[in-house]
Amino acid sequence: MLDLTAAHIVGIFITLVGITLVGIYSGRNIKSSADFAVGGRRAGSLIVAGTIIGTLVGGASTIGTAQLAFVYGFSAWWFNLGAGIGCLILALFFAKPLYNTNKHTVPQMLAEEFGPGAGPISSLFASLGIFLSVVAQVLSAVALLTAMLNISPLTAAIVSVILMAAYVVFGGVWGTGLVGIAKLLLIYLSMLVGGVIAFSGGGGLAGYKAVFPAFPYFSLFGRGFWIDFAAGFSLVIGVLSTQTYIQAVISGRSLKEAKAGTLISAAVIPPIGVAGTFIGLYMRIHFPDINPALAFPYFVLKTLNPWFGGIVLAALLIATVGGGAGLALGISTIFTNDIYSRYINKEADDASKLKFTRFMIVFVLALTLVFIAGNIKSLILNWNFMSMGLRGAGIFIPLCAALFFKGRINKNFAIFSMVIGPLSMLLGKNLLPQNIDPLFLGIAMNFITILIGFMWESIKERVSEKWDTADSHSKP
């Protein structure tokens, strides 16, 4: 057990109370399901950034990064680096067309372009991908709580999902956004201080290089080029395909505010990974025999001032809980808009939608608890990379087609691509060599299907033009 001192407990208590008050205040802004889902399109750039960061900077980017760095070194940076690159591309190329759709969810955008059949299919695979990320966040919280409280993993999992439900169910995107801003300040302070301590405690860059070989520990491709490239690529396309991050863009009070918030996220997220990587390496030097999942919590309890350590532990807990809560909100929004309102209760009023959204958050988190019962010792980042890849394999290219090639892709091929991409990825998981990520198979099948759909429509247009020309010449 990693014993908490009274100073740790006081620091944790003060931090959690402060964040709770912010969450309660944020809930006062919720007056409709639109406010709950996209903030009534009243969010400024900081709220947009807070929502994105509040979800991306969770257990994976802190506890999970330190865990993977403990084993492989700088390969662990890919989660944060890929997320930052994804946010940059989102701001520069996707924010404008997404914002101008006036839709709340990705399935709505796809259904508008490719017909109603696209909605349920994309909802299914998008939700499955997001769900895997919720699993990763709960696993991160389990690692943290077991280290802090010496409770069983199952008990820690139950506590985690209860905290996630309470975190977002009363605040929606306002809760994740406002709390995300407060959490950002805490996480950055925690990571900067922790990163500096770890960097200097290991003797600086020269000290680390003296202990660890350049490969794999100082290579971004320490686990193999295709594995780590796929990890970064999965984050990029995952960010560009995920309801939560797109929802944050749409929530902006203007396109300018939405872009600014996304650019802030792109700049803020990658440095967190560098700090987390050095913390993992530091723990590898000084505590080589510990469970890698405990590297970050152990670092906080063993090296930081207890008062500040309590704040850091609270910030880590908030990061983990907030990440899972934000993703659960994304799933609930998809099901409310694309399943409940369309097929279950077509006459649902705003109050009914809001009630169902909150119910779905609780349901998703309860299902997560059941799911992780047999996966309690899984590696955290593996779930996130799989999650992001699954979302991208089914949604990324069809979404690009819907935004940038309107009316130029055959609808049937587009819908089929949303199925064949994720299924190919899941199949490749069992058939491909371990050094080749199945994400590439999923993306390739998705792209080929969309390309065939594009060619099909082009041929149809040419044939139609020829028939029209022939008809015009045949008329007297």
Write the layout of secondary structure elements.
Blueprint (H helix, E strand, L loop, with lengths): L5 H22 L5 H6 L6 H12 L3 H13 L5 H22 L6 H9 L3 H32 L3 H17 L2 H30 L2 H8 L2 H4 L7 H15 L3 H8 L4 H32 L8 H9 L2 H39 L5 H23 L7 H25 L6 H21 L6 H37 L2
Helix pairs in contact: 1-9, 1-16, 3-9, 3-13, 3-14, 3-16, 4-14, 5-12, 5-14, 5-18, 6-7, 6-18, 7-8, 7-16, 7-17, 7-18, 7-19, 8-16, 8-17, 9-14, 9-16, 12-18, 14-15, 15-16, 16-17, 18-19, 18-20, 19-20
Please describe what this structure looks like.
It holds the Pfam family SSF. It is found in: Membrane. Belongs to the sodium:solute symporter (SSF) (TC 2.A.21) family. One of its GO terms (cellular component) is plasma membrane. This protein has 476 residues and is mostly helical. The protein has one domain: Up-down Bundle (Sodium/glucose cotransporter). It contains 20 helices and no strands. The mean pLDDT is 86.
